[in-house]
Design goal:
Length: 272
């Protein structure tokens, strides 16, 4: 079974469950699943029903695809993502992006929970991802390239579309939502960073997390035009606090920020 066949089978199954022509995909990060609860006329498809999908294992993730209406558009939201640290191959981690691209989507919102490296950030802030650094040292494009999906050497000079960032900044200004901008550093986890790693990362980035970058690489490879990345700063990763009990705090802080993220995402969807 090639990846192309696997994508086709997943696409066919999803199309058999919903006939909507999709405008946008959303990947809900840890604690941000409630974004998908806002979708109306929703059809929910458990990952376990979709061919070649995994079921996911992270607390706070529902593991289903929700298709319906949000902000006046047809959207598909992945309520739960696959992390590399769960033991999934990088191909499996990015499979949902391959599927959403094959469903014809040109806009993707990728959200995550991240630790704040930038001292000017506070827990609960939303950071617009302007750029990323791949400290996972994994790339979903390694191996045979399928020209049907995208080019061998895709450009990565602007993975997060500038116009979309400006659009979201304007929306935040108009709606009184505080927003930060910065560089997201992706690590594999699952162990949190040492103090020395945080000192190092804080020189080159603003937030650190364990996801998003493989998905964004796959999205760019697939030619998805509008990739918007949003991090919710769920804890400060500045080396002054420990990461003991951090995952619960991450989920809690992300949940608290959800209404703000939902408002922002809804408004953004209206304007694309
Ligand atoms: N480090 C890595 N990943 C994370 C963090 C963190 O501090 N917070 C949320 N995801």
């Amino acid at each position: 079974m090639t990846i192309l066949n696997a994508i086709n089978e997943a696409v066919e199954y999803i199309k058999s469950q919903s006939s909507l022509t999709l405008d946008l995909g959303i990947i809900c990060g840890t604690g941000l699943g409630p974004i998908a609860e806002e979708i109306t006329e929703a059809v929910s498809i458990p990952y376990s029903d979709i061919p070649h999908f995994q079921s996911g294992s992270v607390k706070g993730h529902k593991n289903r695809l929700v298709i319906g209406k949000l902000g006046g558009k047809n959207v598909a939201a992945f309520q739960g993502r696959f992390h590399f640290y769960e033991g999934y191959s990088i191909e499996k981690v990015t499979f949902p992006v391959r599927v959403i691209a094959a469903l014809g989507v040109q806009s993707l919102v990728v959200t995550n929970a991240a630790g704040g490296l930038n001292h000017n950030f506070a827990v609960g802030d939303i950071m617009l991802i302007e750029d990323h650094i791949n400290f996972m040292f994994q790339n979903p494009l390694i191996g045979k390239n399928h020209e049907e999906l995208g080019p061998r050497f895709p450009d990565m000079s602007q993975p997060y579309a500038k116009e979309q960032i400006s659009k979201v900044e304007k929306i935040c200004l108009e709606n009184g939502i505080k927003v930060q901008k910065g560089t997201y550093i992706a690590v594999t986890g699952p162990s949190y960073e040492t103090r020395a790693e945080l000192r190092f990362f804080s020189r080159v980035g603003d937030a650190v997390g364990m996801s998003t970058v493989p998905e964004v690489i796959a999205a760019k490879h697939n030619g998805i035009k509008n990739v918007l990345g949003l991090s919710v700063i769920t804890n400060m990763a500045t080396g002054t606090d420990t990461h003991e009990e951090c995952h619960n705090a991450v989920v809690e802080a992300a949940n608290q920020a959800t209404p703000k993220v939902v408002k922002l995402v809804k408004q953004y969807i209206k304007e694309i």
